[in-house]
Amino acid sequence: MTEQQKSLPLWILIVSGLFALLEILVSFLICFSPQSVLETVDLTAKGVDYLMYMWAARQFALGFIFGFATLKKSIPMLTIAYIFFLVMFVGDFLIGISQKENSLVMSAIVMCIVSSAMLFVINRRR
Questions:
Q1: Which of 41, 66, 93, 114 is the most buried (most CB within 10 A)?
Q2: Which residues make Cβ contacts (< 8 Å) with residue 123, sequence separation at least 6?
Q3: Max CA-CA distance within the chain?
């Protein structure tokens, strides 16, 4: 491979960096202002805080992985991050269907398309 084939375009790094920031911000929102994210959940119910912090940890971990992969400009690491992103949104799609929540279904479809497109673009350069 030539050096040009190994490098990632700037726009991919910008999009991946934005995803990293978004995931980290969502994790902080879940921790510090859960009512803004979990409008339909009784936050005083037993065990909800445990699930809330688990969800926040998942979001933070994904943001950290995206950020690290972006800073390293690593094609294999970004590939794994986008595969995780894709699997996560397929799960959100299925949850949206089971809960009959159209907004979750629509956002999951959009993010599955974005994740798939990013995987295609990143790995096309190999």
A1: 66
A2: 75, 79
A3: 57
